[in-house]
Amino acid sequence: MANSADTKSASPPKPSYPPIPLWKLVIFQSAFTPEVLDHTYPGSGTLDDPYRVEWLPNDTRNPLIMPTWIKWMITIIQAFAFLSITFASSALSAADPQLEQRFAVSSTLVIADTSLFVLAFAIGPAIWAPLSELYGRQVVCILTYALTTLFSGAVVASTDIASVLVLRFFAGAFGASAITNSGGVVSDMFDARDRAVAMLAFIGAPFLGPSIAPIACSYLAVAAGWQWVAGLIAVFVGVAFVGVLFVPETYPPVLLRQRARKLSKLTGKVYKSKLDDGTKSPKAVIRIAMVRPWALLTRDPIVMLLSLYMAIIYGTMYMEFAAFPIVFVGSRGWTQANSGLSFVGMGIGQIIGVIISYLDNMRYKRVIDRLPAGTTVAPPEARLFPSLIGAVLLPISLFEFAWTNYPSIH
Fold first, then answer.
1. Whole-angstrom Cα distance, residue 23 to residue 31?
2. pLDDT tens readout for residues 166-209
3. Per CATH, which fold does 63-251+282-403 belong to?
């Protein structure tokens, strides 16, 4: 039937060539094979009319048709790496009393640790996103996670609060590549119809990070001190860095660009990527990539409103990391070790949100099935339904939290 799911989904064909081993995918971006060299590309091979390099039919290097196990391995690694950064963002806040005592500073200054880390989240993506378009996601991820591990480890040896704040800021700035590049890696490997499930696996775990960090680290801070909490963060991020080393390049323009360079070197002819003809200078690519998000933000009301709404939600969540200890430790007399348990509700909410989103994705697929034949992507508004419910529940829950702040109310 014309409105069946098969006619809607533009799923990539299955590979007809032998799968490329993972180690070759990681080391060799061009994945050069005899089939690549023998393929007939459109063009004349000259500067005026270069050969336009494209994916071969059923090309095993095409991220969309890589083996499924490799796709999900990469998705899990990226989710874990993202989780390590979100965990690091709030983990040290569990040791605020120890930091105050060790460096003899006010609670206001110590809270700036989390604020600066999150502030770096806004600065980092403006750098890493354009660089990933120019040099690929693989090299940017490896570089940034290596530096995040380095700065996180250096926090352990800090001798004053200024060093802690500066090092945490840089750790957040380099770790912010997870916000932009990790999601891009997942999008590279899944088409629109199947991407939602992969994104749920990718987003669900990382957003648990800010919730589980205070639960785990509040006990550690009381038992062993703030340096052990900082050490745990460094180990967590370091393990994620090791995982990132096994993630191959997935950005198609960079992959085809590398293949074109290899073909040009071997044949002496001129090859250019079909997705990126190479006429733009690196400076132009970076300028366009940095300007485009701001143009969308200022010129598109929907982007502006949704970005503002997400900023408020994200900011509210991180303000709770400062508010919960005040309410439960200061007003209700909880111990510091037990104060992390106040974030259990937030973690449960994240899990419920993932389940609801998974179920809603089934509805989204039915929306696609009802669209005209040949349409593979539903309107963006089709995914908005769960947000409509959340938009009502969020202010109600915040009102309940404020209303029950008094110790006399359970």
1. 11
2. 999 999 999 988 877 888 888 889 876 677 777 777 777 767 88
3. Growth Hormone; Chain: A; (1.20.1250)
